Amino acid sequence: MSRIEIGSADRRKSVKHSSGVISSNEEGGLVLNLANEEGGFVLDLSDTGSSPAKSTGENQVPGFSLSNNNPRTQEQPVKKFNMTKTSNDSTPSDRPSSGGFSLSLPGGSLGSANMIPVDGSPPQTGGFSISLPGGSSGGVNMIPIGDLSDNGNNMIIGSSPTDNEGSEGRLLEKVNEEGLVMFSKNYQIIVKGGHIDAIITRLTKTSTPEPEFVETFLMTYRNFINPLELMEKLFNRYDFDPPVPFEQLSPVQQKEFTKDLKIVRLRVANTIKMWVRTHFKDFATDRVALEQLYMHVGATFSFYDPTLGNSIVSAIESAQTEHEQRSNKELMFSEPPPESIYPKSGNFSDFDPLEVARQICLYEQELYSNINPAELLNQAWNKNKDDAPNVTKLIEFFNMFSRWVATSICRESNIKARARKLKKFVQIAVYLKNFNNYNACQAILGAFGGAAVHRLYMTWSKAQMKHHKLFEEFKEVQEILSADRAFYLLRQTLKSSNPPCIPYLGVYLTDLTFIEDGNPNYLSTECGSTDIINFEKMRMVSDAIKDILLYQQMPYNFDKVPQIFEFFAKGNLDVLEENECYRLSRDCEPKDVIEVFKRKEKKLSRKSSINSLKRSFSSRK
To answer: Which of 201, 335, 526, 544 could form a disulfide with 172 if both were Cys (CB 3.0 to 4.6 A apart)?
Structure first.
């Protein structure tokens, strides 16, 4: 059973939101029950059962019932309606003008229908729309009653706006006097959007603080302003003015304003402390911003309220110290690292698979931990790589490493050497999984899944022949990184993984791409404002970024082995283009040779089964 919400049909007054229920009835139809204290109705989209509506023609079909659920007026009779079918290819001019509804289901549209009372009274002047997966509702004329949504079942029930829609079909939002757009979510009224100044005012409001609101804003503010502009606006709030000159306020008003001013300044201080504590990289990479922050704090908080000023300065210094300590891993571990395995030479053939996995973890963690939230905004890694240097480096290493794995395997012309090389990369992938480095794991799987390596049937067969246990472990790696259900198993595995950990970055970049492409940065408004930030989108972006940043804190407790670390970090891996790799693959194992090998393998397998049966019968005798 799905829960929904409904708002008031009268926008001139405020009413409590009430809940409703969607369920099925005995006849297999849909019952929409929107009962509330001020009245409701039941919508039954099925055969009306024992009290059928009167048929008015061959185009009529069993319809629905409309009843009042207000306990105070239950004597009002139930009205039953037939549904008049209209053709699916009807033009807008064919649609009912006096109300009606349309119904779309996964199997296709059922068209639109008039609402005709059984008792012969005039057609209704209102209607509704229903849209379910696979189709969308048609337009109707009705008084908007707000949107009803149940995201769990991909169902939206509500008005079909006409005059309230923008040129792109988006609903025009109403901006309140504070410059904000509000909406109901999880039984709470929260900010959906607003002007940048209105949002900053909300950050430092005098009423109950909203830590999550502040956190979301600090994570995404660079979409709209830079750190220096944000700093300026925050300190402007420090000295906000009363609605009229202070001298013109009554003593009571002066006292109230002084109290509000003190609360606002405290909120500004707390916002600054959260900013430096959770996003010190904004200042570590911008010394001008850090100097400006010290200057502003000294001219305001430290001058008028030394205690509060000192707490801000202390927060800045602590964040700076913590940031510097992260580069010194000796301060973070109570136990020594495992003993390193040094190679005899700088050739990959002399590198131990375990140590290769360790050094890849160290290098990728170095790149991953340096990712700044600003790099993940507005698809910077796709649009302007200079704005996302660390994300770009990690993507480039992922692609280069994956291509190098495929190149290394396909360049081995001898099948024994090729099978050994394949087995070595399988070992590395298993070790990487044990170290929770799923990004490098996916790079190896990407190489194995490419046409050049995937088709090497003889190589795979030979590599697995004597290493069944290893390849069973490798199957677990493949299962975890399966793309099924948007990498569901990987996401669940990450939730239970203990750090250090490097998730597959591509999962989160895909999430961010869908959010960015599917939601505008600014809301369309009734008043025509074009600077109303879509803060609900910022919430979604912030949640995705927090998942990425979660794994930045804990580094790997491994020592660097320069020969191996630099082998990968220098970015000089010798790689071939995909078509060249595929050519080498076909030279190593031509298609006809693979077919002959498969036939022999099948024959040997059948012979082995027969021999096994013979031995079984012999033992019984």
So the answer is: 526
